[in-house]
């Protein structure tokens, strides 16, 4: 209910963008097909009239290092983008949305970024993210930069072929914040394994405190470069006020005490889900998105393959060269 309220505020009363389309999309979702963004899409379906199209922006990069390794192993993908992890999960979650939420245009926008284009835009992206200056910042920003541009291809209903498309939406939705609130990162499981709930609480508090400095300024600059505004439903003030005081064993399932059942009112036939962000996974499952509920966490730069494009052992913490 709290997440529904957060989304309602962010998706209603958005002006219709100028576009040569009978039903131009007013909103688009930065869509990897993972749990966080797919859950937002599923809830939005219950809030918006069916005639409102929703664009799902899915970005994939041509990564020379990965392609070279695939060729060496005699596994050459059909295109440089077809086997990107986020493209595969994106298509899977798109198909599940179409099945669970029929009657709406879920427009899957395949945003394919050639290596040459990544290189040519790199100086501009580097300038936009300043004062952030690490390889990890750059690889994350590259994915957001091209996703927010919103230019790719969509499957034409009439011809059944791919055609060029640029989203007219000026409002983008991001799943940022879900990992920091519900223990979605590997380091959260590590913190729990080492120091239990106290260690996990300290790690989550650190992540939430540095979200603005570490993520929000950087992300806003690269996205707003294209004249679009990004909105973060998981970071709504009221939603934070509800989420932060929750006991950690209700948010995640790293060690579920029997005296604190996580889902006493939920069907016991549900399968064992990933312990990270388990509360969100259970919600996603109850809303019919069973495949999305089981998706594992994957960082955007690795899912879209915008990281580690050149051969070598460059670390994410290294300064941009």
Q: Overview of this structure, please?
A:
This protein has 321 residues and is of the alpha/beta class. The protein is built from 14 helices and seven strands. It has helices spanning 2-11, 35-47, 64-72, 85-100, 115-129, 135-149, 178-182, 186-209, 211-224, 237-243, 248-251, 278-286, 290-293, 300-303, and strands spanning 27-30, 54-61, 106-113, 151-155, 162-166, 171-173, 229-231. The strands form two sheets. The protein has a five-stranded parallel sheet with strand order 3-2-1-6-7, sandwiched between helices. A two-stranded antiparallel sheet has the order 4-5. Strand 1, helix 2 (35-47) and strand 2 (54-61) form a beta-alpha-beta unit. The protein starts with a helix and ends in an 18-residue tail after the last helix. 38% of the residues are buried.
Map the helices and strands.
Layout: H1 2-11, E1 27-30, H2 35-47, E2 54-61, H3 64-72, H4 85-100, E3 106-113, H5 115-129, H6 135-149, E4 151-155, E5 162-166, E6 171-173, H7 178-182, H8 186-209, H9 211-224, E7 229-231, H10 237-243, H11 248-251, H12 278-286, H13 290-293, H14 300-303
Parallel strand pairs: 1-2, 1-6, 2-3, 6-7
Antiparallel strand pairs: 4-5
Helix pairs in contact: 1-2, 2-12, 5-6, 6-9
């Amino acid at each position: 209910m709290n997440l529904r309220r957060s989304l309602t505020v962010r998706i209603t009363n958005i002006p219709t963008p100028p576009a040569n389309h009978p039903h131009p999309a007013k909103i688009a979702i930065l869509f990897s097909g993972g749990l966080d963004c797919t859950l937002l899409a599923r809830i939005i379906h219950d809030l918006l009239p069916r005639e409102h199209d929703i664009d799902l922006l899915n970005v994939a990069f041509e990564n020379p290092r990965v392609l070279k390794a695939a060729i060496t192993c005699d596994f050459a993908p059909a295109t440089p983008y077809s086997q990107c992890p986020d493209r595969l999960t994106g298509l899977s979650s798109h198909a599940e949305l179409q099945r669970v939420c029929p009657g709406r245009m879920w427009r899957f926008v395949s945003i394919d970024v050639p290596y040459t284009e990544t290189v040519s835009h790199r100086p501009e992206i580097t300038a936009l993210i300043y004062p952030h200056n690490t390889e990890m910042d750059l690889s994350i920003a590259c994915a957001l930069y091209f996703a927010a541009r919103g230019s790719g291809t969509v499957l034409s209903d009439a011809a059944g072929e791919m055609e060029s498309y640029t989203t007219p939406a000026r409002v983008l939705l991001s799943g940022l914040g879900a990992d920091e609130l519900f223990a979605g990162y590997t380091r959260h499981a590590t913190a729990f394994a080492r120091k239990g709930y106290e260690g996990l609480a300290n790690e989550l508090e650190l992540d939430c405190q540095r979200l603005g400095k570490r993520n929000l300024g950087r992300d806003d600059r690269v996205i707003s470069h294209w004249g679009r505004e990004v909105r973060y439903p998981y970071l709504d003030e009221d939603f934070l006020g509800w989420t932060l005081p929750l006991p950690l064993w209700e948010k995640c399932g790293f060690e579920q005490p029997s005296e604190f059942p996580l889902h006493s009112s939920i069907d016991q036939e549900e399968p064992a889900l990933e312990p990270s962000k388990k509360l969100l996974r259970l919600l996603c499952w109850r809303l019919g998105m069973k495949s999305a509920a089981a998706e594992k966490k994957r960082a955007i730069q690795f899912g879209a393959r915008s990281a580690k494009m050149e051969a070598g052992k460059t670390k994410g913490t290294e300064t941009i060269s």
